[in-house]
Write a structure and sequence with these properties.
Blueprint lengths: L1 H7 L3 H33 L3 H49 L3 H7 L1 H8 L1 H17 L1 H16 L4 H45 L1 H6 L3 H51 L6 H43 L20 E8 L9 E8 L4 E6 L5 H6 L9 E6 L2 E2 L5 H7 E4 L8 E2 H6 L7 H10 L3 H4 L9 E2 L8 H13 L5 E5 L7 H14 L4 E5 L11 E6 L2 E6 L1 H7 L1 H12 L5
Parallel strand pairs: 3-10, 3-11, 6-9, 9-10
Antiparallel strand pairs: 1-2, 1-4, 4-5, 7-8, 11-12
Helix pairs in contact: 2-3, 2-7, 2-11, 3-6, 5-6, 6-11, 7-11, 8-10, 8-11, 10-11, 15-17, 19-20
Bound molecules: adenosine-5'-triphosphate.
The site of adenosine-5'-triphosphate has 12 residues, from α12.
Length: 573
């Protein structure tokens, strides 16, 4: 609720006018039956003048109600859209401050839902609150009091009707709330299923899984239809049931008024407005109940958004750290790292020093901790214990901008953003020139295919970079890594989709063009790092060997084993 309050603050004026308009609307609806009563009285008394003036007053009241309704909708829309836009922007800003670990904990897809679907729910909740929820209590209390004033001797009918409708609505809305929660869950599941199978369409097709996927999706969709139908049944029994209660109340009122009309002749004019108030009470309870059921969905979304705002970023940068030009030295001092929620450490007690300009290869079995080690250098995570230093400065005391300029990390899975190739390369250097692009593309062996496009670096990257092959994506991703001439370049198995010739060319170009850059190359194939100054061998999170290839062959049994296995498999070692 606090979040909603904070985000509503800038719209105080609009909220005031919207609530004022709601009050006018409710007042107009409540006054209409009173005026109608006057009209009836005048008709019975055959007072044409009174009929006319009250008739005109009735129309004026209807027009006022209409204008108030329009004003309310305009302001309510302004407030709800404004709050939704601010919530989206602030959530996005907050997520930008998250560490990689924070994002992984939520999952990227889940955060997208919180920024889109959940914000939409809040927008609807605010709109509903300003349009209906504020009107319902006024309407209910007003109609209740006016019904009692209009026909005081039938007070017990009003109270009995309210009790019966409230009690039965409690039962129905409670049931409905449960089904709404189920629907939300099923919608989430249906979205995930559709997204997964469409994104993985190549796997689905190549493994002939269309039927299985369709069956899974259909089962979910059928369940969604079933729950929706049940809600429909509940609605279709609820409304006639409430109508029945109110019609019995109306019938009883007419009967009692009819029987007492001789003693109370004024009741004849009052009965129409009394019935109108009964109907208003009935609608207020019904709409109020329905709205609060819908509102509960909004509160679930509010809770999910709150969780984002209340998350403290795992990695924060020292605000007063000066921006400096860091060297390419990297030091690990007794570093251990355990992923949040895991019990086993992914890295255990790792210490080493890398001198600026060195080329380091990192090898080890799958899951041995290579990527984890590399991720600590650009500070995607902080070590659980120990220290990581870049350019001699502890990462905990480093300026973020300085670190970003010094370290480029080319990921195992090449990810490009939709837009132009040049937009993607500029992520590595915001003021990069065409010459920078060309040089980077030459190093990454991307120039040969980029230059084939008529529009060159302006060529468009489609969503999920579907218009590029795996190898092309890797080349562009390497180009983005090298375009800013970083002090430290980390390549996490980023040439795996390149043919041996291209991979060799990339290595040669890196050696020549980025001679002063520290290069940390994670490789599945030892052949990719044979020429490294030193190779680090990881085994179950421990650094079990350090040295050049020939030395390791003699000193590290694990390295020798990996090398022999790859050689036996007919690798190009
Ligand atoms: N985000 C994560 N959350 C929890 N555990 C993780 C996470 N990422 C990796 N791990 C675990 O940490 C260990 C090291 O993983 P890491 O990805 O660093 O290995 P790797 O040597 O790079 O493997 P590969 O060669 O397959 O890429 C593995 O046991 C892995 O399951």
């Amino acid at each position: 609720m606090q979040i909603l309050k904070e985000h509503a603050k800038p719209y105080r004026r609009e909220i005031f006018f919207s609530i004022l308009a709601v009050m006018v609307m409710a007042g107009a609806s409540l006054w209409q039956p009173r005026l109608l009563q006057q009209v009836m009285k005048a008709i019975i008394a055959d007072n044409q003048h009174q009929v006319l003036t009250n008739g005109i007053a009735l129309i004026t009241l209807a027009v006022i109600g209409l204008i108030a309704g329009v004003i309310n909708t305009i302001f309510a829309a302004k407030v709800s859209q404004g709050i939704a836009a601010d919530l989206r922007a602030n959530q996005y800003r907050k997520i930008q401050s998250f560490s990689y670990g924070n994002i992984e904990k939520f999952s990227a897809g889940n955060l997208v839902v919180r920024m889109t679907n959940d914000v939409n729910q809040i927008q609807q909740l605010v709109m509903m609150f300003l349009q209906t929820l504020t009107r319902i209590p006024i309407l209910f209390v007003g109609a209740f009091i006016l019904a009692l004033i209009t026909l005081p001797r039938l007070w017990w009918i009003v109270i009995l009707m309210v009790i019966l409708i409230v009690l039965s609505s409690q039962v129905v809305f409670k049931q409905m709330g449960k089904y709404f929660a189920k629907i939300q869950k099923l919608i989430d599941q249906t979205n995930t299923l559709a997204k997964e199978s469409l994104q993985g369409v190549r796997v689905v097709k190549s493994f002939n899984q269309e039927e299985n996927e369709t069956a899974r999706f259909t089962a979910n969709s059928d369940e969604l239809a079933r729950v929706n139908t049940t809600i429909g049944y509940l609605f279709s029994t609820m409304i006639p049931m409430f109508m029945l209660i109110s019609y019995v109340a109306i019938g009883a009122s007419v009967w009692f008024v009819g029987h007492g009309v001789v003693a109370h002749p004024d009741d004849l004019a009052a009965i129409t407005s009394f019935i109108s108030y009964l109907m208003q009470i009935f609608f207020a309870i019904m709409i109020g109940g329905m709205m609060s059921t819908f509102a509960s969905r909004g509160f679930v979304s509010l809770g999910r958004i709150k969780a984002v705002f209340e998350t403290t970023p795992d990695v924060t940068y020292a605000p007063d750290a000066p921006e400096v030009d860091l060297s390419g030295d990297v030091t690990f001092n007794q570093v251990s790292f355990t992923y949040p929620g895991d019990t086993q450490p992914a890295l255990a007690d790792i210490s080493f020093q890398i001198k600026a300009g060195e080329m380091i290869g990192i090898v080890g079995a799958t899951g041995s901790g290579k990527t984890t080690l590399a991720q600590l250098i650009p500070r995607l995570y902080d070590p659980t214990t120990g220290d990581v230093l870049v350019g001699g400065v502890n990462l905990k005391k480093i300026n973020e901008q300085s670190l970003r300029q010094a370290v480029a990390f080319v990921l195992q899975r090449a990810i490009l953003f939709s837009g132009k190739i040049s937009d993607n390369l500029r992520q590595g250097k915001s003021d990069a020139t065409l010459a920078d692009f060309q040089r980077a593309a030459d190093i990454a062996q991307a120039a040969e295919f980029v230059n084939r496009y008529e529009d060159g670096f302006d060529h468009l990257v489609e969503e999920r970079s579907a218009n590029f092959s795996g190898g092309q994506k890797q080349r562009l991703s390497i180009a983005r890594g090298v375009v800013g001439a970083p002090k430290i370049l980390i390549l996490d198995d980023s040439t795996s989709a390149l043919d041996a010739r291209s991979e060799k060319r990339v290595q040669e170009a890196l050696d020549q063009e980025l001679a002063g850059t520290t290069k940390i190359v994670i490789a599945e194939k030892i052949s990719s790092v044979l020429h490294a100054d030193r190779i680090f061998v990881l085994d179950e999170g421990r650094l079990v060997g350090v040295g050049p290839h020939h030395e390791l062959l003699a000193t590290s049994p694990i390295y020798r084993e990996i090398y022999e296995t790859q050689k036996a498999k007919g690798g190009d070692n």
